[in-house]
User: Fold Phosphate transport system permease protein PstA from Pseudidiomarina fusca.
Amino acid sequence: MNTWFKSGKPYIWLTAGAVSVSLIAVLGLLALIAWRGLSFFWPAAIHEVEVQANDGSKRVIIGEIYDREEVSLERLQESGVALDGYQEDTLERLLFKVGNREFVSLDFMWVMEPQIIRNETPSDLAVIERSKDGNFYGYVVDVIENGQSVATAESIRTVLFERIERAVALNEQAADLQQGEIGAINYELNRLRLERRALELEGQLTAAEEQRIAAAEEAQRAAYRELEQQLFAYRDQASRDSVVMRDMRGEEVTIPMYRVLDATFPNDMGWFAKVAHFFTQIGKFITEDPREANTEGGVFPAIFGTVFMVLLMSVIVTPFGVIAAVYLHEYAGKNAITRLIRIAVINLAGVPSIVYGVFGLGFFVYMVGGSLDQIFYPEALPSPTFGTPGVMWSAITLAILTLPVVIVSTEEGLSRIPSTLREGSLALGATKAETLWRIILPMASPAIMTGLILAVARAAGEVAPLMLVGVVKSAPMLPVDGNFPYFHLDRKFMHLGFHIYDVGFQSPNVEAARPLVYATSFLLVTVIVGLNLTAISVRNHLREKYRSLEH
Assistant:
């Protein structure tokens, strides 16, 4: 036994076991997040339940079973719920998602299982996904065009899907027009306003310049009026149709078709139809904008903002980190100052991220951004251009946060390169700069990529500093659009990490937001893994390319 311990094998097995347990824990956590998040997109059965209260009154509830749990009878009695004649110690209660927010005070209702008289899943129950007030559950009664019925009992589903597709297409055309051509006109009008203000501040606003700017503004306004008429025409056409639904109260409700995004009959779906609907909903979640205070719709702006900010941060941190590492390892002397700088770099890695956020807000936003506004954008004041949180300051703040990781990783890579290669290059007549550029940095590129991978992994998940320097709950515009200069680094942006915080802790409807928290968390992990895999593939390619230089 002593020989076995002295051989070191127990420690090898202990390490392997710890690694295995860690991997199982991580994979189990990811599986739990994926299951809780992705199950939200699976079309759940819609139940029509008749419930009898203790006073003998009955009511009908239509919705999907959202959750179920076992509760003790004593707990219910303490909370004031009386169940006459029930003798068991525990009972099951069901949480129904009933939607129809404009007519029901709560989106969710708890129902005790003993109170259920009838529980059915009729095939003609429909779920109407709307752009406002969430889902609507009920029976499709009629489809109306300009106040006249256009559907029969046999054709009602076909007509419904056709009118929804038409309304969605018109809404998309209106949104594209508003965000595209109309947005470009508004952008140009604001540019002309700033140009007039700049000339006025410089004392160069002559009558000719005023006339030129006024003519350009009038031309833009004329184009705006034409596009506005086209926009109103789209909206009028979209509001032509409506669908009549009968809800759980037994009353008929008319829903304008321009507010309808989709209609499904989950109880009448086969397995393949459910799979197709599942992937369609995931596609919408990834590509659409959020709605209803981020509790409905998709997360595309948050995905775009996260990836754009991380890529911008990578472009900033990599050259600065590599240059600092090269100076410390190749040029700086081995003295007390160099050792002090290395200690400071290592200690920076342990500074809480919120401190970086405060530093970024005070230095970059207020000091640097405010100075830029005074020098280059005086015509926009007092409205700040760069003197306000934005995606550029967020990227720079996270670049400073992750800079120690890149420096340390690059230095480790430089230290592994044999000194004989440097001496051989210099002996053959190359300068130190040529040796560094053609031999040392290519061989150290895998280590540089390793530092970048670690920096991306940390930056993509940071939220606290971003709350101070650029991220917002809802951004009306992306940092990239078709207006010159195309990349608007002064704009605020959305972030998947902050979106998770906002939906999970700031949402007015916690139960409805819970699956979106899991879905967005899984998406954030997927984005981070995708960015890391891309960087790893580049690192492996570089490692194979320059492997021959090591021998």
